[in-house]
């Protein structure tokens, strides 16, 4: 069986759509995709609508609603769930007009945030910490799967050679589906996401992109929309993106979402003192952070944070210069410059970045 032989999306002729996307779009009509996080806390949903005006900011977009009983977010008898637009991006799938992607947070029928709306709490922390100018940069690792749910490009009955040649690899025997990574990179730039780079990762079919650094909530917003764009592009190829933190058991690396964090004081002369203070606070709140760093309150990270494969043990807090086996890494350059940022290596690849940023601000800045 050829790779992707079972994938209906891979079989469709992608060039036909071009004919329709070239049709002129009425100047007074805008196509808008509303994107939100569903009740799993890790998957995104989206639906589209036409607007006959050009909104100037997120709050000019109409509040919309959806059937929350079909997204694990409401009972069927009271299922209207509200979408509040919070961030706007250019739409790379319908380029050349004012079409947009609109990231939304979600509210129940009674206007209370849904259980997976972690943005609201994060924004409150960001606003209280605004004077310290917190910056975040997140390294999003992920794995591409074939439609049989095996990593893309892996032999159907067996395994690729052991890890070693694949990280930042080049060549057809080292990396698979680079075109998805390329398409995603450019589409994110077009959309207005602060995508900082990409690389092939340690396990074959595993990749990474980085978002940030951005101040406040921008990095987390960008990451959610970057995930949406990645799912959409892979969908066109018939390939599946998984953010599962340990898609393959055994001697294969898992996936994380290392979070690089700093405040203005950390970035200034002798900021290393502030970095060490933050690490001391983090050492006393290990459990809070583990609970915030994957969508299942720490259960997903049990599979990944084993103390092997460049991870720390989920049970212990540790920190060290240039140590990829620690909870917190102080990069070598930061130790030498005595200022900069710290890297929290614990967040799982399927984390909600709002929960991660929220926990870091509350522990390190707000002293909660
Ligand atoms: Mg990495």
UniProtKB/TrEMBL annotation:
GO terms for biological process: glutamine biosynthetic process. PROSITE patterns: GLNA_1, GLNA_ATP, GS_BETA_GRASP, GS_CATALYTIC. Pfam families: Gln-synt_C, Gln-synt_N. Keywords: ATP-binding, Cytoplasm, Ligase, Nucleotide-binding. One of its GO terms (molecular function) is glutamine synthetase activity. Its EC number is 6.3.1.2. This is Glutamine synthetase. GO terms for cellular component: cytoplasm. Coiled coil: none annotated. It comes from the Eukaryota. Residues 30-111 form the GS beta-grasp domain. SMART domains: Gln-synt_C. It is found in: Cytoplasm. InterPro entries: Gln_synt_N, Gln_synt_N_sf, Gln_synth/guanido_kin_cat_dom, Gln_synth_cat_dom, Gln_synth_gly_rich_site, Gln_synth_N_conserv_site, Glutamine_Synthetase. It catalyses: L-glutamate + NH4(+) + ATP = L-glutamine + ADP + phosphate + H(+). The gene is Gs2. Belongs to the glutamine synthetase family. It is an enzyme of class 6 (ligase). Signal peptide: none annotated. Gene3D superfamilies: Glutamine synthetase, N-terminal domain, Glutamine synthetase/guanido kinase, catalytic domain. Residues 118-368 form the GS catalytic domain. It comes from Cryptotermes secundus.
